[in-house]
Amino acid sequence: xxxxxxxxxxxxxxxxxxxxxxxxxxxxxxxxxxxxxxxxxxxxxxxxxxxxxxxxxxxxxxxxxxxxxxxxxxxxxxxxxxxxxxxxxxxxxxxxxxxxxxxxxxxxxxxxxxxxxxxxxxxxxxxxxxxxxxxxxxxxxxxxxxxxxxxx
Length: 152
Known about the structure:
Blueprint: H1 11-22, H2 28-35, H3 39-51, E1 71-79, H4 84-95, E2 100-105, E3 112-118, H5 121-130, E4 138-145
Antiparallel strand pairs: 1-3, 1-4, 2-3
């Protein structure tokens, strides 16, 4: 993600965010050297960036290939209706489906775009029937299979 300096972030804040986006486990001593601050001010800025929501958390980035989750598919979802209650129901249900890696509401020819990661096409077919098709208010789906990830 490209991080730009703005009226709420100064040069040091921006550099801290850039460095942590590359290596979220970077020790504060290394981070402070990288951005040109002493340890305590750097640590205070980092805590403030967390408190203000610029940093939402730290997580391990897993290798899906090593975990046997080689198949990536994108699923266009059209809902039967898009009234607020239907959107709410769909959004809530998606949160509980671990098979769905990402969900985006779309302005266009369909309502949602889902990203799923499965072992293979047979496993995806099972997830489509058991999970995606049973989400509230789903009218139709269209699947697009990723042949190669060029940029993650």
